[in-house]
Amino acid sequence: MWLATDFQQKVIHYYRQHGRKHLPWQGTKDPYRIWLSEIMLQQTQVTTVIPYYENFLQRFPTIIDLAEATSDEVMHLWSGLGYYSRARNLHQAAKMVVEEFNGHFPQNPAEIETLPGVGRSTAGAIAAFAFDEPSAILDGNVKRVLARCYGIDGWAGKSSVLKALWLRAEENTPKKDTAQYNQAMMDLGAVVCTRTKPKCNQCPLSEQCYALQHDQVAQLPGKKPKKTRPKRSVYWLICLENAQVILHKRPPSGIWGGLWCFPEMEQSVEEPIHEQKLDSFIHKFSHYDLEVQPLLVKKLPNTGIMEPNEFNHFALDFLLKKTQQKTAEIGLPTPVSKVLASLDSQSLKT
Ligand code: SF4
Q1: What structural domains and CATH numbers belong to the chain?
Q2: How much is the pLDDT for 43?
Q3: Rounded to 5 degrees, what are φ and ψ at 108?
Q4: Which ipTM value was assigned to this complex?
Q5: Which residues form the HhH-GPD domain (predicted)?
Q6: Atom of ligand 1 at shortest range from CA of 188
Q7: What pLDDT shows up at residue 228?
Q8: From residue 105, how far is each of 32, 94, 221, 292 by CA, in Å?
Q9: At residue 267, what are phi and psi to the nearest 5 degrees?
Q10: Which helix (H) or strand (E) holds 260?
């Protein structure tokens, strides 16, 4: 069994030997500066953050200066750093500290967490770095180290996995030297136990690391499950008669509402009798994929056509002209125009 004290000692020893100690927000106990750095570092690299951090502090040296600024000014100084909700929350939180905490940054992690844009891990980091509170952190880097060291499988977005990670983070966080320990865990994740190609041979935790010992480094932490996009598979029935094609008008609401399309059948029903299969394709809607198999048919089947709203015969020439001119006389969805344009001379003779 891996004792928490042994884990802590190894981590703190690593910090003393190799930890990053000269970043602009280190060596201060000013909660405003620490908070600012923690917010800027969310989803952003250290090297990108440094100039923004320095400019920000030059313009807003105290939390009161920030609270009194206009939002335009705050957003302007944040421009280029991305994730702009962070800047809006920062400004709101500065006002809240001034109005609700009399300008004194709260010290307790639970109170810090009430500030807009501050989650449990950020609150823990501020409390530990600024006030030496023995509070645990669990940012993305720390999650990775713990998941690998203890073989905590599954995606951290899942509540049971997150709970297991927090439990381990709390158990391992020392009551003393918490700031050093937290900084070391962040550094280990950022520099040694990286997402790809971790430097296990330089890691102080390698001897007991579950992932390394069980050849699971690439598998841990578990990835976010990929959502499979729903797919609908349909036939489009292209019925050509005397160089005319049958289209039907979609009902006014729903996908392609009011546009003219080929009569459509679900592919789950029996394949209709057809003369020729044209190239199938997939059209991507925002929330699903439509797999289309166009079929040249002599006549439309009596059953199975979806939403048989209003049918009409159009001269293929007329439709092709519409397609090329992109006129709005009749509405054609782009995939329908493409299929029409692809009908070769062979089809026109039928
Ligand atoms: S031994 Fe390798 S996988 Fe395990 S914590 Fe260290 S760097 Fe990460």
Answers
A1: 4-213 (1.10.340.30), 231-349 (3.90.79.10)
A2: 86
A3: -80, 135
A4: 0.99
A5: 40-191
A6: 7
A7: 82
A8: 7, 9, 35, 59
A9: -75, -10
A10: strand 260-261
| Nearest CA owner, ligand 1 atom 2 | 200
C-alpha to C-alpha distance for 41 and 23, rounded to whole angstroms: 12
What was the pLDDT predicted at 251?
A: 78
Residues of the chain with pLDDT under 70: 307-310, 320-330, 344-350
Atom of ligand 1 nearest to the CA of 205: 6
Angle at 331 between CA 328 and CA 334, to 5 degrees: 105
- Ligand 1 atom, smallest distance to 199 CA: 7
Does the annotation count 100 as an active-site position? no
Question: Which pair of tokens denotes residue 333?
Answer: 């969805």
Residue 121 CA to ligand 1 centre (angstroms): 21
pLDDT at site 326? 47
Token output for 107? 């010290």
Counting ligand 1 atoms within 8 A of each CB, the residue from 13, 201, 203, 207 with the most, and so the one to mutate, is 203
Going by alpha carbons, the residue nearest to atom 8 of ligand 1 is 193
